[in-house]
Hints:
The complex is a heterodimer. Chain A is an alpha+beta fold. Chain A is built from 20 helices and 28 strands. Chain A is rod-shaped and about 165 Å long. In chain B, α1 (11-24) crosses α5 (119-136).
Amino acid sequence: MNTRQVDLISCEREPIHILGHVQSHGYLIAIQPGSYTIVHASENIADLTGVEASQLLGKPIQIVLEQTNAGTDSLVELLNVGSRHNTWDTMNPYRQIIGNRTWNLIIHQHNGLILLEWEPSGDQTDELTNQQLVAQALTEVQSSRTLTDLLQNTAQRVKTIIGFDRVMVYRFGADWHGKVIAEALEPHLEPFLGLHYPASDIPKQARELYKVNLVRLIADAESQPSPIVSLPDWPADKPLDLTHSVLRAVSPVHIEYLHNMGVQASMSISLLYRGELWGLISCHHYSPRFVSFPARQTAKFVSQLLSAALEFRKDEEDQTFRLQSLQNGQALHEQLLEDGDVVRALLKHPTTALDVTKAGGVAVLFNGQFHQLGQTPDESATRALTEWLRSTNAETFFQTDRLPSLYSAATSFRDVGAGLLAIALSPDLDEYVLWFKPEQVQEVTWAGNPEKAVTVTDDGQHRLSPRKSFAAWTETVRNTSTPWSEAEVSTVVKLREDILQVVTRQANEIRLLNQRLQAAYEELDAFSYTVSHDLRTPLSSIRCYSEILVEEYGADFNEDAQLLFKKIIDSTDRMRSLIRHILYYSRMGRTELNQQAVDIQTMLEGIREEFLVAEKGRQLTIDIKDTPALSGDPVMIGQLFTNLIGNAVKYTRLNPTAHIEVKGYQANGEIVYSIVDNGIGFDMKHSGKIFDLFKRLENARQFEGSGVGMAIVKRIVNRHEGKIWFHSEPGRGTSFFVAFADPTAQ
Amino acid sequence: MTDVLYVEDDPNDADIFSRLMRKLDRSISFTIIDNGFEALDYLTSQGKYLDQTRPMPKLVLMDLNMEGISGFEVIQQARQTESARFLPIVAFSTSDSPTDVRAAYEAGINAYIVKPGGYQATASLLSRLYDFWLDNNLCLDSR
């Protein structure tokens, strides 16, 4: 694709275990096990033996030390013992004085050959100190309170053992990029603690070697490595395998890397966790520095001790976070139970929904409202995200550490939300709790400026520049957050249950209230019935007996008594009508809506007929124009038009030629009906009262009425989720408009 | 032998009815029963009406809202006996509630009349009722 990609591949493929060189501070010989015939030798071996490497090839091992003061016999004996027991570890290092120097001979057998490596013995005086350090390290592992403490103290201890300028504990992430999590350094140096390194800094095959070779020393990065020469007839495709060699030369790429950092000596000690590379103790020295085999073994022992401790500590650390999450989850649960308000319980108390995960922000969509804490996308982005979540059918929860690759719109807010952990409370109501983790690159402090990548061209050969690999790393972690741990997910899933429990309980409370309301309605129903029946019965008696009195004894009454009886009878009429209207009003509020298509044309014609019969003798026309279909409760709709047309009939009574027009039309998904009359009208400034129960307008006094009719109309309109409005002027008639949802519109 | 049976527990209504019958001055015999239990006994020939051999009335006016046993129940139970199965029963009630109207029809009434609530109005109503149910309507005489 681009050169960077190609460079990366070339780095990954570099065969660093068979590079064919050794570091120049030591010497190497490889022999065949049975015959002890020399098949490989490092070219610099002449410095030790006085014999050219090419002269040694094909000869028996005895020849090597022949010209030195070291005993040849003892070397052969040593090899015999090792071969017999098939082990070399116990005899390493074998101290030999060659010339006037003491050497450590390290022997191992690998891939069909025995390798002998001589390196300087170093300073002998440290050995006791090292033993003390090991003992201290052991105590340390037992007593350190946290993993961080333990690692920090180990860094210091390793620094004391090997005396390097800088000792870092470097931890790998899931994507193999590394972070410096502990450091011991000379006071004048700039700390690297907290810095991140791209995964490509330590390529895969290097990581594999770190798992095999737990300790690795580069004594002088600037020195010229010594090539390994082989028997002339040695097959070219079988170079010496240096996997376990202590002198193995360093890959040019790595040398370049160290050079860029100004490091001249480096040592690394592997930290393994359950057989996998967990981290490295990476040691830098800014001048060449050799660390003797025993010191390296001590450091290795400390690292093994630490690796063993990691197995427990890491679990413990996870356990601590899990426990913390659990406690915070419980606190939230208590807040939910006490508070009842989901949003407040999650966001407004000392413990918040942000405390159950390592997220950077949390958003709560509940009851149509958006709330958030910390760093989250804004409301519209969050709503769009939940819209998408719904389409993924995530019924309970959803988690990802790479949201932008699943949902491209998330690219715009990856700086706060590259990772998403969401729980669905009610997808239908768009109710979610969402935790966001920022894009990882946002959290990373780079070791070196990725913008200043240097391309190194070595003899026209393109190779990966270590600094340049930052850009590649950035590419790979772009749009990615740190992953959600199992503890985070399980806490959040539990929290969802807690929230739903509270929500359900509240819903049940509402249902209970509804039941009580229902009971109250039924009581009111019974009351209305009593009013309509029990009050009407004595009223009828009053009315009837008054009529009987007038009929049977009327002749004996004077005119005043006659008038009084008429007033009684009229009053019973009014009371009867009032009672009937109250009953209607209450009935319109509570009876179930029997929604269906209404034959509005027939209904209006029926109503017109009734009024024309009742108002016989008047000059009254009721025009029925277009009657688009309506859907509603036929009884209620009938009541509504009866009342509206009835009012029009009533308030046009003073007009010699009364005209009423009823028509319907479709508008914006609604059916609007208008009832227009040329009656007395009213002043719009009193219009606020028109739908109030028992309220009658000033100029309506001369007309009979209970003041309930329009209240019934309003109630019917409300029950149908419709609208009602009007226009009127005194003396210029009134227009009423009612709007219902258009049953033909979607 | 009675033409009209009026079941009514309100004494005033019963009294007004009696007065109206006099006022109408038609040769119509009537009986008023003031509670549902007795009305049911009457219609099913039970209790004190046991063993009485008499034809059923030509019309029953049934008030619905009564103490004890309601008109609905009386009608419903009466309809289960052979003698009252096809008897013209007209609900005569103060209530105009659609629920009551429906329940009355389901119990088996032949017609539903809301009490007009006035003397004159009741007079003219009864007059029309008798014209139809006593003169025009053809009964099935179950005896």
